[in-house]
Write a structure and sequence with these properties.
Blueprint lengths: L9 H30 L9 H6 L5 E2 L2 E2 H17 L10 H37 L4 H19 L7 H23 L6 E3 L5 E3 L7 H12 L3 E4 L4 H10 L1 H4 L3 E4 L10 H6 L6 E4 L2 E4 L4 H7 L13
Parallel strand pairs: 5-6
Antiparallel strand pairs: 1-2, 3-4, 5-7, 7-8
Helix pairs in contact: 1-3, 1-5, 3-4, 4-5, 4-6
Length: 307
Amino acid sequence: MPRRKKEISWINRYTRPLMAGLATIGAVVTAYLTISAFTGNATACPTQGCDIVLSSPYATVFGQPLALFGFLAYMGMAVLAIAPLLVRLPEQKELRAKLTAWTQPLLFIGGTAMMVFSGYLMYLLTAEIQAACLYCIGSALLSTGLFGLALIGQDWPDRAQPFFIGLITVVVVFVGTLGVYANVNQPTTATGADGQPTIEVTTQSGSAEIALAQHLADTGAIFYGAWWCPHCQDQKQLFGREAAQIINYVECSQPDGQSQVLECQAAGITGYPTWEINGERLAGTQSLEELAQLTGYEGPTNFQNSI
């Protein structure tokens, strides 16, 4: 008698398209956050916690936005999920079967790694940063969904296989995450005259930077920042060492890097850097040209520093 063909359950049939869809959503969101990080623009978010979280020292790894690594991870998961589905010709059944078998453990490893890392980020949100970021929470849910689909939506010939793969992945990712954040890339800091940490500015100021800084100080523009904030360092580097000492800069972070000084609490500052110009608030790193235009600066504009 001919062997009866094994039936494919609905979850096995639709797992890879679902994973590709979730990964694509994650890739779009993290791409947006990556662009915002590189441009220094504030993100569109209904809560105030997003900018706090995304400007924290935990949002930058190896000098790059964490969202960039999230984008690469989501793109990788999308490619792994969809690759066998692109092989559709009848004579390519063997190739499709090989791709499915090859990508199956990789999808599970990726889903497990992303879920564990997202879980650690959720711990940081609640215990360290103490702010809610909807993008981060959404990413954690997407990662958990990818893990669940990779586990229960794939046909495992040996049920012990995902257990051992998952255990090894959890240990490696957890240890690696602790190592990464033990040496998290933060701005170079120095100690101010009052003994408090402050941003160390290494660039030199030209005459145009000094003139603009003096104009900003004279017109009452205020720059709110934090000593651990990468974008705040970028902003000060644009001005240079001499000009950065002229602008009205308010240090919002306490030495512990977590709590906020009373002045910034009273001003309602929720993200760094924040400029207050003519009664209006601007979030994110601003170019010197933009600051000049916004404040009616009419001096020299041959600025020599750029990020």
